Amino acid sequence: MKLVIFYEKPGCATNAKQKAALREAGCKVIERDILNNGMSEDDLSTFFVNLPVEKWFNKSAPQVKNAELDLKALDEQSALKLLIQNPILIRRPLMIINKRKLCGFNQWFVERLIKSEFHEKISAYCVSVK
């Protein structure tokens, strides 16, 4: 049984579907609240290795969706500070699978890490953020 640490926004329907698919594939999912995660900037940055800064952000978050933030203008340090202060902006889920840290739900990659395929296409994007 694969262990998945799953940082989510409680109540997010998309995260719920992702967790259900992981469980159906035989994974043990340990849920963590991304809004109250207590991570440091250093801890959070380990989920973003090799990703451009704009991929760290949840496209459905109101500040991003309404273009209130210029993501291309943010450097890594400024982006980390902003994400720690406003965790609703973090692209979800953050996951740890087999000691690999992931930002977002790339179904193809997740299936390879857990060595199992899901029965259906699972959305990677949140439909709404409150």
* Strands ordered across the widest β-sheet: 2-1-3-4
Shape: globular
Mean pLDDT: 91
- The SSE order reads EHEHHHEEH
Please bin the fraction of helical residues.
25-40%
Under the CATH scheme, which class?
Alpha Beta
Structural class: alpha+beta
Walk me through what this model shows.
- With 130 residues, the protein is α+β, with helices and mostly antiparallel strands.
- 30% of the residues lie in helices and 15% in strands.
- It is built from five helices and four strands, in the order βαβαααββα.
- The protein has helices spanning 13-24, 41-45, 62-65, 76-85, 107-114; strands at 3-8, 28-33, 94-97, 100-103.
- The protein has a four-stranded mixed beta sheet, covered by helices on one side.
- The longest helix is centred in the N-terminal third of the chain and has 12 residues, at 13-24.
- It is globular.
Quick synopsis:
The chain has 130 residues and is an alpha+beta fold. It has 5 helices and 4 strands; from the N terminus they run βαβαααββα.
What keywords describe this structure?
5 helices, Glutaredoxin, four-stranded mixed sheet, 130 residues, 15% strand, 4 strands, globular, alpha+beta
Q: Strands, helices and their partners?
A:
Blueprint: E1 3-8, H1 13-24, E2 28-33, H2 41-45, H3 62-65, H4 76-85, E3 94-97, E4 100-103, H5 107-114
Parallel strand pairs: 1-2
Antiparallel strand pairs: 1-3, 3-4
